[in-house]
From TrEMBL:
Keywords: Membrane, Transmembrane, Transmembrane helix. The chain crosses the membrane at residues 12-31, 37-60, 67-88, 94-115, 122-141. It comes from the Archaea. This is Uncharacterized protein.
Amino acid sequence: MSTTNSFLKSGNLVSMVAAFTIIAELLYLAIFGLNSVYSIVSLTLISLIFMQGIVAFIFYYTALKSILMLIDVPIGLLIEAIAIYFLFLHKFLGLELILIGYISEPIAGTVLFKYFYKTNRIYSLMFFIGAIVFTLGLPLYVFNVPYVAIIGDIVKIFGLLKLRKCI
């Protein structure tokens, strides 16, 4: 296995773990309501997702050396760090910043999409479309409509699982 494939496989694994952690957080908020985002359970899950995002970025960037990823992801992660700070202060601004920070996911995902598209078009599309649907579904939580983000994340997970076999 090449070094690139090794880093891609590691990034894929971290992304899958993060996606399952995201599902846990999305379900928690769907069950207990948006105000539960300030609970220790939610803050812990969000902090874990943030840390997993850093690790996944390191693996993917090391594998693909993408300038787009190098510019986009650290900005998104910085916004997420600030968002988490505000969430710990029980400020709604934290949620608003998370929505802004997550815009970087599909942007950075284009790099992975283009890389994997050569190998498997269907699963790379599932991953990418899932990430977009997930991101677009996040604001709907304000209207108590959690299903769009949850379905998007599930589609993304399925794409990631299938792409793992292509690495």
